[in-house]
Structures are given as C-alpha cells and as structure tokens.
Amino acid sequence: MPVYSEKVMEHFMNPRNVGEIENPDGVGEVGNPVCGDMMTFHIKVKDNRLEDIKFKTFGCGAAIAVSSMVSEMAMGKTLEEAMKITPQAVADELKGLPKQKFHCSNLGAQALNKAIKDYLDKKKGEGKK
Amino acid sequence: MRKVYLDNAATTPLLPEVREAMLPFLGEAFGNPSCLHSWGDAAREAVDNAREQVAQLIGGDAEEIIFTASGTESNNFAVKGLALAQQNKGKHVVVSAIEHFSVLHSARTLEKSGFEVSLVPVDRYGLVDPDDVRKNLRKDTTLVSIMHANDEVGTIEPIKEIAKITKEEGLVFHTDAVAIAGTIPVDVKELGIDALSLAGNQFYGPKGVGALWVRKGVRIMPFLDGGVQEGGRRAGTENVPAIAGLGKAAELARANVASRMEHITKLRNRLLTELPSKIKHVVVTGHLQNRLPGHASFCVEFIEGEAMLMLLNSQGVAVTSGSACTSRALKASHVLIAMGLPHALAQGSLLFSFGLDNTSEDVDYVLAVLVPIVDRLRQMSPLYAKFTKTGKGGK
User: Fold this and answer.
1) Check whether domain A6-121 has CATH 3.90.1010.10, yes or no
2) Closest residue of A to B305, CA-based?
C-alpha cells in the first residue's frame, strides 16, 4: 500500500460529506483526469457561514482523503475563515501526505475556494440586478 | 478474512520444492564455485546443473546461458551489450513502445553515447506489427529488441515473424521473455532469435536471479568486468542458492507447463468474461487471443486505480494498477498510452494475474468484493456524475 498516515487511511475508508447539493449556492471544480485527480465541491451558505459542503473526487486515496478533510475543516466556518484553509493546513491535519503526492492530490482547498468565489460572484451579480 | 493473491505478474510465490533445492547452499554447501576443492565442487555442480535446467526450459544450450541478478539486469545486459559489441557496424537500435523500462531506459542510455533509437508502435491491443518493425530498420540498424509478452496487458507478440525479418536483414534480435518464459513453452531455436531474457520470480523461483540466453556466435560486451565467471561476461561470485532455485523452478515449469496453463487459463477466462458482465463500462485491455494464460487486465471507467487497489487490499485482495497515482513517477502507464487509451481511462487500470495457488472461489470472491468497490468509488466520482447526467464520457 502507499505510505499513507492512519488519518489519511481513515478519511479514505470513511469519507465525510460525499455527494452533491441540489441547487448549491456555489460550485468549484479543479484538476482534470489527465493529471490524475479531479474534484468538485458544492456549498450551501447561510449567514456568511458554510452550512453544508459536499464533494465528489476522481483520484487516488490521498485525493479522496484530502477532499473529505477539507469538507470537515470548513464545515460551519465563515467564508473568510474557510478561504484561509491552505493545502499545507490540510496536509498537517491529515498527519502528512507523501511528498510526491502533495501537489497533485492536494487540490481540496483550491476547489473549496473556487466554490466560495463562485458564490460571491453570483451574489455580486444579484446585487447589481 | 479471505486472502487472495492475484499479483503473480509482480512475483510468484516460491514453490516448496524450489526452496528445498536452495537450502543446502544457504547451509553446509556454502562453497565458492570457482574454488578447486570439495566445497567449490559442490557449488559448481549446482550451478552447472541449473544452467542445464534453464537451457532445457527454452531449448538452448547450457553454455549459452548467463546467470544474472534479475530480468532487469538481463535486459540491460542484452540491449547495451549487444548494441555496443556491434557499434562499428552501426548505432541504430529498434525497440517497441511498450517495452519494460529495463529495455526502454537501456535504449535511452545508449542514446547518450551516440546511438539512435526508434520505437515501433503498437495497435490498440498492444500488438506489434512485424511490418512496422521492418519499416523502422535502417542501414545502420544492428539490434532489434521486442518483448515476447507484455506484463501489463498480457499481449503476446509475433516474435517468430519478427525474427524472420531480422534474420533476413542480418540483425541481432533480442526478446524480453521475462513475463512469459516458464509460463508457456518457449523455444529459442523455433523462434529463430539471438538472445532472450528471463527471471526466476516469474515462475515460482526466487527473486534476485535471472538469466540471459545468447546464441553461440553472437557477440556481446561483458556486463561486469572481473573474473571469468559466466564466461567472463558477467563476473562476480555466483549467487549459488538463487541459481539452484532458478534451475529447479525451470525444471518444474518445463515438466508441468501444460497443467499449469490449463489451470490459470480457466480462472483467467472466468474473470475476463464475468467481470465486464457484472460491472458496466469496463474495457478489457490487451489482446483477447494472443494473451498470457494467467492474465486479465481491465480499465474501469470513471474511477482511479489506486483507490480500487486500496479498497481491494482492505478486502484481502492483491492486484496491480497502471494508473498514474500508483506509479512512483506519477505517470500513466506508457503501455496503455501507446495503445491509444485516453489518460482518464488509463487511470482506471486494474491487472489481475493468476497463479497456481488460485482457485475458482478466488474468482467468486474477487467479483463479489469488486462490484461494491466500483460502485462506491463511482458514487464519489465527478466524472461518473457527469456521465450519468449527460451520457457523455462513456466508452
């Protein structure tokens, strides 16, 4: 098996918040299948807080664990707090990721950020109407 | 929990008879075969005996066998040694695009010292067309190396037909037979080739030992300089226990080849037909007829190989994948890409390789655990979600 921490294995075997949200407030997608990993995050926002997060991931064990971890770390946080979650913070919370996999699998924070930006952009658009 | 080993392409287990044949040389018979006393004699006899056994497995002569430390070493030795020995005739080498890295990277090393290398393409089943080999030949070509069978997709190449061409053109032809020697009958004279690599741990022998057969009269540069072991072409004190084990494994493989083939082909065929009938959107990789007997390989769409492998392992099943995430280089299998598979599909590669210990119940078990694993990962996959919503992306 790849050398994964117990925490990575635990999140891979029991991933939290897998799925999609009907009528999400924001959607973020990063990666592509050519490089190996791809993630989609759906969010629901209430009073500037992440009320719900769901993800889908195509990729290795680390990519799935990262997505699960990010969703757990960000749940209930304010948008500003959630956007401060870095790939390094996710890796730390997972008790480390294999060095060569750090960049390709560690796209969860980026995908979540994209979903939040998508929400903020939509909101801005609505404000203009 | 049931344990099912289906990674015999990576290594087969050691047969008890083979271990028995090795034990004396890990104990009282510790002599160095080069020594002129009774300890040396016992060790030398074991090495000579093994040389005969390995030669018989492939229809060669004992004096044409050079023992090495692995299939990788045999391939390095052959590609570099055969090309260098002929470099005054020309510096062009032809290999296929799906060779093992020990051949491909050896060819790349030759390029650094002024050689040129041409890669012969393969079709979607991983087959080399002998005409394509001919098209890649030049006036300065001296060596052609095409594998006998590919370990990743199981395809068996038309070696005899390619050897006809190289013979016509007066070229040296090496084949990497590591995945096939000891599994199905291989006869170097019938094939009409000049050199062949094999490895012990592919047919129930020990790891760390292989052999290179080089037809008498074909020149090869020594691989290790030193004493006169292996005819001065591969110096160094012999790994006597491993060589004795390789010899015994070769003898057993030759004696039992028919029954072994029948056993693993039957199991393999079940998986090849039943897996795609139980799981939708699965592509069989490799050639369906010209195929290694114990070899079943697939690409499962919309999901990634390492994740499947980890979940299978959690159910006690050992397999391999050619996905980018499982390779240390993080690159998708060069074999699958050379066969024209899209990257996303190659990511879902799974390889099952059967061995003597497997049973029909193993196939039942693997099918039973794999179906929910694929289902679970697909429920997690954004590619599958897109496919089910738009119908796009399926093969």
Assistant:
1) yes
2) A60
